Amino acid sequence: MSREIIAILRGIQTHEALDITDALISAGISKIEVPLNSPNPFETIEQMINHAGTDAKIGAGTVLTVADVERLAQIGADMVVSPDCNPAVIKATKAHNMASYPGVLTPTEAFSALRAGADGIKLFPAFKLGLDGFSAINAVLPPQTKAYAVGGVGPSDFAAWHAAGITGFGLGSSIYKPGWTADEVSAKALEVVAAYDAAFGS
């Protein structure tokens, strides 16, 4: 199954990226994001794309400019994730047939993102919005909107967010921290997948 989990590898270094990519894919996580404030992110992302092939959708996070979108398109990235809602970044992303997940926290930002063509919205920081805040926003969103909780949300929260109508999650420190080995990432990823399958149905 294709789980709606995006692994956020903030701080990952190029030399460790392929082993960690393999660990995530083997655990059942096939959406992977390398934030652009990581070391050598474009080189890392390109190597991961070439290594994983069609086994994973790999892209960048913390994408703030159209120039970054253009560079990601050149190396074959699959998705663009941002902490903010920038219509120019969204439109450039879609012009290159990449998936767009901009960050939002309010209904105004959510609808601006969708009007610009976003594939889904990244609710960030989700722990500040909370379940009540998300439920209120979700009540007015178009029914098929894909919404991802990112920031301060972990496996123990999956069931509650699923009950509130969330599509999926972006997970950073609960699945990867700089310095963790591929084996450590694998163990965390398996815990995440088990919690996701329990909440969403395997």
TrEMBL record:
Pathway: Carbohydrate acid metabolism. GO terms for molecular function: lyase activity. It comes from Pacificibacter maritimus. CDD domains: KDPG_aldolase (cd00452). It comes from the Bacteria. This is 2-keto-3-deoxy-phosphogalactonate aldolase. NCBIfam families: PRK09140.1. Transmembrane segments: none annotated. Homotrimer. Belongs to the KHG/KDPG aldolase family. Keywords: Carbohydrate metabolism, Lyase.
